[in-house]
Design a protein that fits this description.
About 0% of the residues lie in helices and about 55% in strands.
Amino acid sequence: MKEIRQGYYIGERPLFGEHNLNLWDCTFTDGESPLKETSDIRLFGCMFKWKYPLWYSNNIYAKDCTWFEMARAGVWYTNHITVEDSQIEAPKNFRRCTDVSLKNVSFPNASETLWNCKGVSMQQITATGDYFAMNSEDMKIDHLTLYGNYSFDGAKNVNIHHSKLLSKDAFWNSENVTVYDSFISGEYLGWNAKNLTLVNCTVESLQGMCYIDNLVMKNCKLLNTTLAFEYSTVDADIKGSIDSVMNPSGGSITADHIEKLIIEKDKIDPSKTIIVCRDKICKEVC
């Protein structure tokens, strides 16, 4: 396999279409698409300083690499890529990619990142930016810290473990999402989702978990959470109290205490939802 060390590349497409190449401590600057249509490329300690570095590529491994802010739209239409121990400052990265593995990667500007990707594995990720992981599928995530609204909109088949999401409107329009042992804070959580499951999670949300078809919550806490479950079918076991519940459309809700239960009988059928307060005190407002 050919090796290049400390290469410095200026101009458009300097290594276009290259195959079977190891690159060590190389810099790509002032030129678009330096590694377009490449395959079997291994990158170690490399720096990308301009747009579109990896498009239509296959079998890419990158370690200790840096995408600077202007290396935006960095990885599109690429299959079988692994990125480890790297910093990706550029926005709009990873679009319509398949078989993406990310480990110990930071995304300080993750706006519109990981869109329409399939087969994504993420471990030890920190990301800041809106519209993270929109319409992506088959995702396995462990230890994600996310600061940004509208995350996972339209995502399907997602498993998340040990994560912290500070994200308004997370999981809108999603399907088959399961979150374990995580903290989620953000208004309007999960609207219009199907098959959203939260296990051992702590949630803070204004009008969270509404308009959901098949919401399951097991051993969860709801902190400062008001007007929850409106028009949702619910199977919820909540540890602690809920500030307010409004117009669930069916299922069961169990909590230690519900401060305010709002049931508007002209809008929903109360008989379709079983509500249990362990302290046997429930302030219903009809």
